[in-house]
Specification:
By secondary structure, the protein is α/β, with parallel strands linked by helices. The protein is about 30% helix and about 25% strand. The protein contains 13 helices and 26 strands. Strand 3, helix 3 and strand 4 form a beta-alpha-beta unit. Helix 1 packs across helix 6, helix 2 crosses helix 3 and helix 5 crosses helix 6.
């Protein structure tokens, strides 16, 4: 099968069968399958250089027809697309593209391009451009060194993920997808981009600028499926008078970070319907899904997605039945990391950094393998401390982390999202003192209006560490 056929063949079939079908709508505009085809040809025609097939090309485009057209253009050219954030600074886009070995950068200047002038190709100063066989996209992911790192995904793996999720989530041909997470991030790629290109699933774009834009778009266009994040849901529920939930939204899922039990319960209480948690990874797409809509309330991430096999491997001998490393096998597992391979992702297997344990047929996550804290030689699970803090009324979210300490190993710290007028740090510390061993109690407790997050919606670890830095400095200077 040709390199990108699992994505291009379904789109070409859609183009022949329903060229006028609307694929993207929003801001009073619409783009059909034939419009996307024409824009993709315009993007390819705007080339000022001709990278050979298989050559990496970095791509940055805002969400909308421009993103889909740019991706289609690169798929047709046989050039793997390094998916960059469109809102990142131009210098950063060029730096990441060059570091990953891209020969060129394809940028779209607007969500709604009008023709070749909306697409800009720039040669990158890459000494030896990378040529990757059987790769459709390279998804950006964080690395331990801070250097740019990607996940190389074939079209076959992306298509397998789309098929498995569509079936597992019970989505249908008449579903209308609310496009409120970035199309180029792994979550948006799986739940929005691929269904649009492979199935013609309509994407409904919110109008930028309003905190209620997603819900306004759902009402305006009759959205039925809403992929969102815990951060967005938590912000909505903190409003004194949350808006009414659109009647047409029959399925709302949350991914990108753990969905706290109290947030899931509050969602059901306020809106009278469940929110389904979804656990996935850039390296393998979907892993687990909450089919019934009550898993997050019980502290799990649901059961394995159709086609996915999960093994929980104990970290130490005799650890059967306890939390262990999550190993994933499926046809959707990506080919490997780029540019530096890692045995944790190869041969159809991904060794996640998450600690998990089975609760019947469902998986419960207990933090990250590399998040276990070492306090004077004793191990501390952040999840245990977080669960203790969540017992307090008024806690909206919490992250426990370790500030590196030259002598102790780590200083346990807790960042708590709560109303400072209702919950004080000393109350949290007192609660922990009565329930946790001394080495598990947080020495630093920080009550914040909301937890710091990166532009991708992840917890901003650097910001957390800056909170704990004064504690470490105080010990050093004592």
């Amino acid at each position: 099968m040709p390199q990108n056929e699992p994505i291009l063949a379904p789109f070409d079939a859609l183009l022949r069968a329903a060229p006028t079908k609307t694929i993207v709508s929003g801001e009073g505009r619409r783009a059909s399958a034939s419009d996307l085809d024409a824009l993709a040809r315009a993007a390819a025609g705007a080339r000022t250089l001709a990278p050979p097939r298989g050559t990496l090309v970095a791509m940055a485009a805002p969400d909308g027809p421009g993103f889909l057209a740019a991706l289609l253009a690169l798929l047709r050219l046989g050039c793997p697309a390094v998916l960059l954030d469109a809102w990142s600074p131009a210098a950063e886009r060029r730096r990441i593209g060059t570091a990953l070995g891209a020969a060129a950068l394809l940028e779209c200047t607007t969500p709604w391009p009008s023709g070749p002038s909306s697409f800009v190709w720039t040669a990158l100063p890459t000494a030896a451009p990378a040529v990757l066989e059987d790769v459709a996209v390279v998804k950006l992911t964080s690395g331990s060194t801070g250097a740019p790192r990607g996940v190389a995904a074939s079209a076959a793996a992306l298509a397998a993920d789309d098929d498995d999720l569509w079936r597992t989530m019970g989505l249908a041909d008449d579903d209308r997808l609310l496009s409120a997470v970035p199309l180029g991030h792994s979550y948006g790629l799986s739940s929005l981009t691929l269904p649009a290109l492979r199935r013609g699933a309509p994407l409904l774009l919110p109008t930028p600028g309003s905190p209620f834009a997603a819900l306004d778009a759902a009402v305006r266009d009759g959205a039925t499926f809403f992929p969102t994040t815990p951060a967005w849901v938590g912000g909505l529920l903190r409003l004194s008078s949350p808006p009414e939930w659109p009647e047409t939204l029959r399925l709302t899922i949350s991914a990108g970070a753990p969905l706290a039990p109290e947030v899931a319960s509050r969602f059901r209480e306020v809106f009278g319907r469940p929110i389904h948690t979804f656990y996935g990874s850039s390296e393998c797409g979907g892993i687990c899904y909450d089919r019934a809509g009550d898993a997050a309330e019980r502290g799990t991430v649901g059961a394995p997605v159709d086609g996915v096999r999960i093994e929980v491997v104990p970290l130490e001998r005799g650890g059967a039945g306890k939390a262990g490393a999550v190993h994933v096998r499926s046809a959707a597992v990506c080919g490997g990391y780029w540019p530096h391979p890692d045995p944790r992702l190869e041969g159809g297997r991904f060794v996640a950094g998450d600690l998990g344990r089975w609760e019947g047929e469902e998986l419960a996550l207990e933090g990250r393998v590399d998040d276990l804290l070492n306090v004077h030689g004793k191990k501390v699970s952040p999840r245990e401390v977080e669960a203790t803090i969540r017992e307090l009324p008024g806690v909206e979210d919490v992250v426990v982390f370790g500030a590196p300490h030259a002598v102790a190993g780590h200083v346990v710290c807790a960042a708590v999202a709560a109303d400072p007028a209702r919950l004080r740090p000393d109350e949290i510390a007192l609660h922990c003192r009565a329930r946790l061993a001394a080495h598990k109690r947080p020495r630093g407790v920080f009550v914040l209006a909301e937890l710091p997050r990166t532009p991708r919606g992840k917890i901003d670890r650097a910001a957390l560490l800056s909170l704990g830095a004064p504690l470490v400095a105080a010990d050093r200077d004592a």
